[in-house]
Amino acid sequence: MYSGDWTQVFYLDHLADKLQHTALETIFSGKAGGPWTILNRFVAEQLESRIVPIHFEDHGKKKHLFVPEFLESTVVAIRGHDDENDATISNLHNVIHGPVHILSRGRTKSTDRAFTFTNQDTHGLYSKFDWKVST
Description:
With about 140 residues, the protein is mostly beta strands. It has 2 domains: about 1-50, no CATH class; about 55-135, no CATH class. It is about 15% helix and about 45% strand. It has 2 helices and 10 strands; from the N terminus they run E-E-H-H-E-E-E-E-E-E-E-E. It has helices spanning about 20-30, 35-40, and strands spanning about 5-10, 10-15, 45, 50, 55-60, 60-65, 70-75, 90, 100-110, 115-125. Strands 5, 6, 7, 8, 9 and 10 form a 6-stranded antiparallel beta sheet that branches. Strands 1-3 form a two-stranded parallel sheet. A two-stranded parallel ribbon has the order 2-4.
């Protein structure tokens, strides 16, 4: 049994409608089943969702996420040993994304009233994934 003391908040894009917001909250809270159910075992407090503009840019090896007044994060892929491909990690036990993860270095700054922090020159992982509901 997993338990934790995480505080969680959802940032939902302002372009989505109320029905889409509700669906995303259901998925990310683990109420729809799937991988988020496992992560939600660590959540002790769920804060009210924030409806905000979300900007994401994918420049190949560099990814940038910007949520005005709340969050800014950038990750850059780490070059692999062969000097051509990205460094990757696979065969992880507890993942909710794809089977191969790109290792990256990044910076995240949160100015949300519930989560104020800055992480600089830390590692990150990102991957391609496909979440489908099986019927």
